[in-house]
Write a structure and sequence with these properties.
By secondary structure, the protein is mostly helical. It is built from seven helices and no strands. The C terminus is likely disordered.
Length: about 140
């Protein structure tokens, strides 16, 4: 399991380091869900609750740090610090959505529960597609 943890962290360090704004964050989210739903990837292996609990805790702490750093960049670069988002808590929410969504997707035999859960965990920074708030966030409020 250590090799899978290391593989995911290396890939995530590169992917999350490239996240500078909401569009990048959304692109990362989409790639993450695609990787997590492919049974042949290290992501699918690390999202199974097996192995040494301490190794898993260390892995999740490291991944959470990477996610939190990316979220902090998005907030700073888009001048949205005023939203009052705790990036550590949001990173934990993303990881929880990833794990829970993966379990539900396995039961449903489809990726929609995973897509939805991760999308909602990131909704304060990347509004879900096809919602009025997504349109407002991207284009600004409409003026009569």
């Amino acid at each position: 399991m250590k090799a899978s943890f290391a593989e995911v962290l290396v890939r995530e360090a590169t992917a999350l380091d490239a996240v500078a704004d909401s569009a990048d964050l959304d692109q990362w989210r989409r790639a993450l869900v695609d990787l997590a739903t492919n049974a042949e990837t290290a992501y699918a292996r690390v999202l199974r609750p097996t192995g040494d609990p301490q190794e898993r805790a260390d892995f999740l702490a490291s991944w959470g740090d990477l996610i939190a750093a990316a979220l902090a960049r998005v907030l700073t670069n888009e001048h949205r610090e005023h939203l009052g988002i705790d990036v550590r808590q949001m990173a934990v929410s993303v990881l929880a959505a990833l794990y829970g969504g993966t379990i539900l997707s396995r039961v449903a035999r489809g990726s929609q529960p995973l897509r939805t859960s991760v999308e909602l965990a990131l909704a304060p920074l990347v509004p879900p597609a096809n919602t009025p708030s997504a349109h407002v966030e991207q284009t600004g409020p409409s003026v009569p």
